[in-house]
Structures are given as C-alpha cells and as structure tokens.
C-alpha cells in the first residue's frame, strides 16, 4: 500500500512503514507525519500485528523536519497549529516499535527514531540534532529523549554544536540497540521484529510500558509499577502457556490473550 509519502506493508505479524520522499531525503513534512501516524495507529489497533518497523532509504532515514515547509511560518502559526505535536501519537503506540536507520537521521528524523523502542543502525547511519545551525532547536522531543538516552554530556555536545555522530559513537553512547551492515539492515531488523512479534502481545505491552516507566518515575515508584505490572501478567493465558511450555520442554503457543 503506497500513500503519497510512505509505503506500508503488513508482513505476517510485522508492520513495515517506509518513508518515501527521496527527493527531500525523507524530510518530515506535516502530510508525511499524518500518514505515518495513521498507518501506525491502524497497525496498533490490529492484534495480528506484534511489531512495527519504521525505516527510510539507504541514504536517509529522515534528514529532519521539512525546512522548506517550516521556513515561512510565524510564531503565531506554530503555536496555533501546535506544530509537530502530531508525532506524539506515534510515540504513544503500544505495539513494540523498531527504527531501522540507514544514512541520515537528523533533527526530526533523529527525534522520531528515538521515539521507537529499539533503534537498529546500519554502519552508515549518522545521527544529529542540527537545528541550532538553523537558528532554532529540537522540537519533537529531541532535547528530552536524547538527554535520557545518552546523558547530559553528549546531548549538550550534539544539540549545541549541531554535529553528527556515526553509528559506532551512537551505540557506545547508548542511543542504538545494535549495529548491522548496511545491506542487511532490513533483513536483520525484520528478524528482530518477527522475534518480538512471536511473543505474547499483552506481555509485550506490559514489558514495554514498564521499561518506558523508568524515564517517568523514581526508582522506588518504578520498581513498584513493574511489580504490579508483572503480577498482572498472571491474568494472561499466555503466561500460563509460556510457563507450562517450559516445564513440558516444548515451544509455547501464544494466543495473545
Ligand atoms: C527540506 C531537505 C532537507 C530538510 C534535505 N533536503 N534535507 N529539504 N528539509 N530537512 C533536500 C535538499 O534541499 C535537497 O533538495 C535534497 O533534499 C537533497 O539534499 P542535499 O542537501 O542536496 O544532499 P547532501 O548534499 O547529500 O546533504 C545531505 C544533508 C543535507 C547533510 C542531510 O541535506 C542537510 O544538511 N539537510 C538538512 C539537515 C537539517 O538541518 N535537519 C534539521 C531540520 S530542522 P533539492 O531540491 O535542493 O535537490 C528539524 C526541526 C525539528 O528537524 C523540530 C521541529 C518542531
């Protein structure tokens, strides 16, 4: 299925959203954002989808918000539109999400990649928040998610200088889950997505929510949230099946219930 700026594919239990504005290095205009959010929402409400992959082209995951679309806007425009808040709905997806990043992930591109639960980088990936070079600053969560992912030292370095970091540095800093060769990026990411999608979906929701909670709470409150969420998984048929399968030395059959 192809819309104007993305292609969307349901492959088994994995949903794949591919950014497809090659002439602008997948720059995120508002129409593209709305298409991604709609596709992700459709997948998120479909229990036959257990993982969502967001990717771009080999040259660019996304080279940022669309500067040409932004350039003419006034303060009154952006505050009235709550400019770029559309992406909050992508960050709120409950199904596990994976960004498969090849080439440039800059500005809004880096910010959207950081909204995903896992970030798989090709060897040629380049991450950065170059908004400062345009006289502005990150506005789709970059200052918050980058600081939480890599700490203050590197977040300040990237946000204040606008420089790019390569895949190795991004992995060392804790931004990236894994690095793979550029030509195997999609295959490797799909293998990870299929693995995640083969698990109990309600257990994955619970696990994802608990890990995400680590950024929202004190340690004591987070541990308490985790314990109660863990207890809640004992209401799942999949939890009984998973443990019974282990005891009986057979693979589990999850029904996502
Ligand atoms: C609009 C863009 C774009 C962008 C690239 N293009 N990035 N158009 N918005 N963010 C367009 C170029 O204008 C050009 O179009 C075509 O894509 C190819 O780009 P080139 O620059 O010719 O390619 P290259 O020389 O390979 O350089 C790649 C690049 C460079 C280093 C990634 O394009 C670049 O610096 N882009 C801008 C990166 C950036 O500043 N991103 C942050 C945006 S601000 P034509 O028509 O000339 O062929 C942001 C704010 C988020 O993200 C918060 C908002 C609330």
UniProtKB/TrEMBL annotation:
GO MF annotation terms: enoyl-CoA hydratase activity
UniProtKB keywords: Lyase
PROSITE patterns: ENOYL_COA_HYDRATASE
Catalytic activities: a 4-saturated-(3S)-3-hydroxyacyl-CoA = a (3E)-enoyl-CoA + H2O; a (3S)-3-hydroxyacyl-CoA = a (2E)-enoyl-CoA + H2O
SUPFAM superfamilies hit by this protein: ClpP/crotonase
Family: Belongs to the enoyl-CoA hydratase/isomerase family.
Protein name: Enoyl-CoA hydratase
Species annotation: Nocardioides zeicaulis
Lineage: Bacteria, Bacillati, Actinomycetota, Actinomycetes, Propionibacteriales
